[in-house]
Amino acid sequence: MAIESGKVDPRVGTLQRIYQGLSCHLSVEPWPQKPLEDILRGRAQAIALTRLKKTMGTMALEGQAPEKEVFRKLLEKRTNEILHDTREKLWRQDDER
Predict the structure, then answer these.
(1) pLDDT of residue 36
(2) pTM (predicted TM-score)
(3) Burial of 54 (0-12, 13-18, 19+ CB in 10 A)
(4) Of 44, 50, 54, 55, nearest in space to 77 by CA
(5) How far are the Cα atoms of 36, 49, 65, 74 from residue 60, in angstroms, in the given order?
(6) What is the tens place of the pLDDT at every residue in 84-96?
(7) DSSP labels for 31-80?
(8) % pLDDT > 70, the chain
(9) CA angle 36–41–42, rounded 5-degree value
(10) How many CB atoms lie within 10 A of CB 47?
């Protein structure tokens, strides 16, 4: 059989029929590549970074850009604020914030 030899990548419907023939249920479930908390933190940090870059660009033009360590702490603070604000949307279609 082509499936058994690895020559064919079967569709879900095909797998369901095979499993039914074995008196089994087929279960397909996603497994995150990393913990959900890490995924959410990464997304919140990306939003915070985008917002800070806009602010920092203006400050840099005025010669007021913060030191790297200050920026890192500010990024962490903003990331935490975004994570804990129930009004924040971590995924938007337009990605405009």
Answers:
(1) 92
(2) 0.60
(3) exposed
(4) 44
(5) 35, 15, 5, 16
(6) 998 998 887 554 4
(7) --SS-HHHHHHHHHHHHHHHHHHHHHHHHHHTT-PPPHHHHHHHHHHHHH
(8) 85
(9) 100
(10) 21
Mean pLDDT of 2-10: 83
What tokens were used for 65? 């850009």
Rg (CA), the chain: 23
Model confidence pLDDT, tens digit, residues 36-62: 999 999 999 999 999 888 877 666 555
The tokens for 19 are: 């499993």
Q: Which residues of 2-18 are buried (b: 16+ CB within 10 A; e: fewer)?
A: eeeeeeeeeeeeeeeee
Residue from 10, 1, 3 nearest 28 by CA: 10
Rounded (5°) CA angle 46-48-53: 95
